[in-house]
């Protein structure tokens, strides 16, 4: 795996208790993988925090019958995930800081190319749609009519969104203005990070159009809120890292790897000026809408 560049070297730790020689306890390795070209301060912060969380988990690992795989790659970002999935390995991959769309596309490519890891999961980079919908209800203090526009990359979310009574439109090459006119009577547009719908060029137009229609936009990043979206949930580095560590700990304990998932832990950011223009009063319940890891909750 010469393409894999890790900030921190692979760790090999023995299990703590002794067994008879005929049944020796073997160590289990993990490696934090970053892209070869990525030596940013943010990536170093992610890797250092992950390392501190993972060391105590793997130091107590015992190899059981259900736990046959000997290497866990914790992969930071899409470029590193692309590198890992381009090579064959009998390994477990836990992806973090990569969007659901990119993760699914890379896993599909690896499956077709015969390089899919033995097992893989992810903590996606973008907010959980369910949490975004709860945030919208808190902001409006009543049941709200929500619309979402899905492209090819987000089509997999349609069943879950429709189950939550979201009006879903298929982008399908349609003109974005025509789609926005179709959802103009809803209260909220739930924006999902799909490059076929939301691009640098289209976001400004979308925000202006929804503003004219008195619609709030629940964005998918803090930057989008600063640009004119109403609000979003978001996760700090430590929130994602805590969830990754929980997934790793569950795998170590029982040999079962959790399915790919959206961030469990989050905070909220609101554009108060946009809220006022929509005649919304931002309550303390909205500002405090969050779910934090145990270590971050305080006494």
Automatic annotation (TrEMBL):
Key word Zinc present: no
Signal peptide range: 1-17
InterPro entries listed in its UniProt record: ABC_transpt-TYRBP-like (IPR007487)
Key words of the record: Signal
Protein name: ABC transporter substrate-binding protein
């Amino acid at each position: 795996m010469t393409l894999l560049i890790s900030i921190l070297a692979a760790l090999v730790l023995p299990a703590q208790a002794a067994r008879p020689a005929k049944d020796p306890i073997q160590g289990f390795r993990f490696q934090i993988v970053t892209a070869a070209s990525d030596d940013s301060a943010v990536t170093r912060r992610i890797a250092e925090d992950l390392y501190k969380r993972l060391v105590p988990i793997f130091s107590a690992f015992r190899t059981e019958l259900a736990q046959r795989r000997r290497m866990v790659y914790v992969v930071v970002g899409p470029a590193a995930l692309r590198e890992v999935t381009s090579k064959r390995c009998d390994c477990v991959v836990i992806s973090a800081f990569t969007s659901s769309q990119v993760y699914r596309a890379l896993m599909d490519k690896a499956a077709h190319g015969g390089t899919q890891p033995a097992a893989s999961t992810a903590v996606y980079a973008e907010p959980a749609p369910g949490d975004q919908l709860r945030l919208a209800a808190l902001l409006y203090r009543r049941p709200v009519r929500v619309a979402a526009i899905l492209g090819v990359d987000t089509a997999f979310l349609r069943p879950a969104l429709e189950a939550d009574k979201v009006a879903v439109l298929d982008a399908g090459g349609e003109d974005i203005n025509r789609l926005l006119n179709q959802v103009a009577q809803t209260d909220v547009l739930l924006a999902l990070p799909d490059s076929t719908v939301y691009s640098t060029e289209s976001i400004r137009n979308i925000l202006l159009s929804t503003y004219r229609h008195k619609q709030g936009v629940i964005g998918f990043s803090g930057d989008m809120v600063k640009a004119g979206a109403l609000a979003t949930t978001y996760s700090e580095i430590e929130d994602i890292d805590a969830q990754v560590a929980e997934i790793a700990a569950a795998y170590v304990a029982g040999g079962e790897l959790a399915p790919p998932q959206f961030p469990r832990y989050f905070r909220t950011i609101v554009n108060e000026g946009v809220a006022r223009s929509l005649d919304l009063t931002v309550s303390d319940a909205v500002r405090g809408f969050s779910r934090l890891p145990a270590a971050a909750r305080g006494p």
